[in-house]
Amino acid sequence: MSNSKTVSPVTRLRGTLQAPPDKSVSHRAALFASLSQEPTVLTGYSIAADPGSTLHCLQQAGVTLTQQLDPDGLTKTITMEGFGREGWRASAAKSKENGPIEFDCGNSGTTMRLLAGLAGGAGVYGRFIGDKSLSSRPMDRILGPLREFGIHSEARDGRYAPFLVNPLHPSTKDSMEVNSMPSGKVPSPMEFDLAIASAQIKSALLLAGLFSEMGVQVREPAQSRDHTERMLHIPTEKGWFSSSVHTPIPPQTLRIPGDISAMAFWMVAATIHPDAHLILENTGLNPTRDGIIKVLQEMGATLSIDERSTTGSEPAGRLEIQSTGYLKPIHLNGDVIANVIDELPILMVAMAFAKGRSEISDAAELRVKETDRIAAMATILQNSGCKLTEKPDGVIIEGSPDFIPRSIVADSLHDHRIAMSAAILALRASGPIEILHPECTAISYPTFWEELARIC
User: Residue 182 pLDDT more than 80?
Assistant: First the structure.
């Protein structure tokens, strides 16, 4: 694909779209399957680049797996031999003898953060690297708690990749060793009362705890996405999630549900367009991920759900979305932010067409994603003619149902969600919008551009 793609406004949107496999569930399904001693088959696995990075890293650790592209060319089937905790411990022993295992996580922050917990807890001596974008994202919010748990690490400038986990000669002495508890004693689990709701911090700690006699307990100030707890059947008591070496690993053979974060772009496209009718099949409806639906409904979107089903432990359904007369403004803050953190860029597009002032607060995390998503979207919307005010933790948008975006050049900054948000904005513009670095959509939604052309 060239370094830019031009999207022109259209007079109508029609079609039925199959949701691509959920990226978050794909990552976790592969990681958790590696913890099982039984063979695993994952169907409907994502062909996107990020989940592919997770598979590559597992192979580097010694996991034996095969990948078969499905007939539709849109998903693949993963068959994994049993590896289990013992396989990870064997990899740890080899890494200490032969040198660090290099985990190239590509652009995937989920791979890097969750695998740091899993491999770190197993005692693997690992070197974690990523592309330029991933290497600019802070990792200290994961490495700090893991260090408290006794998992040593050495990072570039103390917080960035490349970093080492379980280096043979750590430069600092931490509070305790994960796998060396006093004989005959079962110590109390180490508690982590998180300051922010983060599925990645929570998951990294719970994965590390799976190798520890001591174990961990984790609590969040608000509910983040719960795929880890669902898929591993992690017990909870009074808001505390816990794991230890005694936590059983359930079978992970399953079919991956559709990705609601990918479908969010079509939801907003249909909602803001004056002549639209879209059907979204097999869309994941996890209650910790469905905030996009609730927000759009609160704004007045014409959206319905039917044909509900369950894929493994994950609910899914069929969505029908049609044009909305006008959208009401909304203020998003507090606990709701964790549920819509990935959808905020496209929700900023929806807010630009709402009747009045909308606001996003408590979303400073958006500034440390693949790019500073607050600044990136603010630039695109302002250049297109939208009135807004950027804040440290969000944005204030003065929307209007009569807003007609100007024809501009939109720089995605190599961020997949920024590129797709700009494409949806272009459908209502006065003329073509040129989007720079469109190939980045392969990170999460490889067929996005083909699907866009099909419904226009």
Answer: no
DSSP β-bridge partners for residue 165: 126, 153
Asked if 9 and 431 touch (Cβ cutoff 8 Å), the reply is yes
Q: Which CB contacts under 8 angstroms, 24+ apart, belong to 381-388?
A: 381/348, 381/349, 381/352, 381/425, 383/408, 383/410, 384/408, 384/410, 384/425, 384/429, 384/433, 386/352, 388/352
Nearest CA among 243, 192, 242 for reference residue 221: 192
Question: Which three-class secondary structure state does DSSP give residue 62?
Answer: coil
Domains of the chain: 4-20+258-455 (3.65.10.10), 23-169 (3.65.10.10)
Average pLDDT for residues 137-149, to the nearest whole number?
95
| H-type alpha helices, 234-331 | 260-272, 291-298
CB of 414 closer than 8 Å to CB of 20: no
- Where would I find the beta strands (DSSP E) of 238-291? 240-243, 254-255, 276-284
Task: From residue 248, give the alpha-carbon distance in Å to each of 24, 37, 84, 202, 234.
Answer: 22, 11, 11, 18, 9
CB of 192 closer than 8 Å to CB of 219 = yes
Average pLDDT over residues 122-149: 95
Within 8 A by CB and 6+ apart from 5, the residues are: 423, 434, 435, 438, 449
pLDDT recorded at residue 185: 54
pTM of the predicted model as reported, rounded to 2 decimal places: 0.90
> Distance between CA 161 and CA 129 in Å, rounded?
6
Q: Please identify every residue annotated as catalytic.
A: 342
> Does 175 have pLDDT greater than 90?
no
Count helices and strands in the chain by DSSP H and E runs: 14, 23
The alpha helices in 299-401, defined as continuous H runs, are 336-340, 344-352, 373-383
Q: Give the CA diameter of the chain.
A: 73
Q: Which of 172, 178, 62, 162 is nearest to 120 (CA)?
A: 178
Residue 232 class from Cβ within 10 Å (0-12 exposed, 13-18 middle, 19+ buried)?
Answer: buried
DSSP lists the bridge partners of residue 18 as 281
> Are the C-beta atoms of residues 327 and 353 closer than 8 Å to each other?
yes
Alpha carbon distances (Å) from 421 to 301, 369, 378, 404: 18, 15, 12, 15
Burial class (CB in 10 A: 0-12, 13-18, 19+), 140: middle
